[in-house]
Amino acid sequence: MPKNCQHMTNIHTDKILILDFGAQYTQLIARRIREFGVYCEIWAWDHDPAEIAAFGAKGIILSGGPESTTEAGCPAAPRQVFDAGVPILGICYGMQTLAVQLGGATEAGNQREFGHAALEIIGNDALLAPVATSAELRNVWMSHGDHVARAPEGFSITARTDRLGIAAFANDAKKIYGVQFHPEVNAIDL
User: Fold this and answer.
1) Choice among 40, 67, 92, 144 that is catalytic
2) Of 40, 67, 147, 182, which residue is the catalytic one?
């Protein structure tokens, strides 16, 4: 190993798997993870389940996408995602498929929501705790039509907006989290 590389660690030790449901922001999710110095890969949501299980991710992110969980035969996370025993984060459609697959419910919105929204953090969970230090509203980016109407049993609702009663949910014991907004998008990107 070259002397100048001896201090480097194996970037593949802590790796994140992003399952892409066709979101416009999936590459931005990967960029944000890499900005933290963490290795990640983007695979299609219907990638070979055996390879998903063998990847050895320290966490899995389910991206957004254009499909609707209110339609029969919509894309869903493979069982191996839940069997991996690692933290899972669903973003937008990813949150919606988590809700449906884990016994919650989604519904079509009366209109699409696209743009800034004021997020109110109303629960305490491991995901939002670092930004929940005050009662102030957080400016987040929304881009969705459907939304979660009922969180799965065992999940707490941790954030809402003036339009959504469920903008985030969490089950800290299972390390499964969902956000309807796009945390990968910030004002600099717009």
Assistant:
1) 92
2) 182
- Is 144 a residue of the active site? no
- For residues 125 and 58, give the distance between their C-alpha atoms in angstroms, rounded to a whole number: 19
Is 184 labeled as catalytic in the residue annotation? yes
Phi, psi dihedrals of residue 28, rounded to the nearest 5°: -70, -35
Enter the DSSP assignment of 164.
-
Q: Is the pTM of this model over 0.85?
A: yes
User: Is 140 within 8 Å of 128 (Cβ atoms)?
Assistant: no
Please, which residues bridge with residue 141 across strands? 116
Distance of alpha carbon 35 from alpha carbon 186, whole angstroms:
14
Q: What is the pLDDT of residues 42-74, one digit of tens each?
A: 999 999 999 999 999 999 999 999 999 999 999
Q: Is 67 one of the annotated active-site residues of the chain?
A: no
CA–CA dist 122, 76 (Å, integer) = 28
Of 13, 171, 19, give the one whose Cα is nearest residue 91: 19
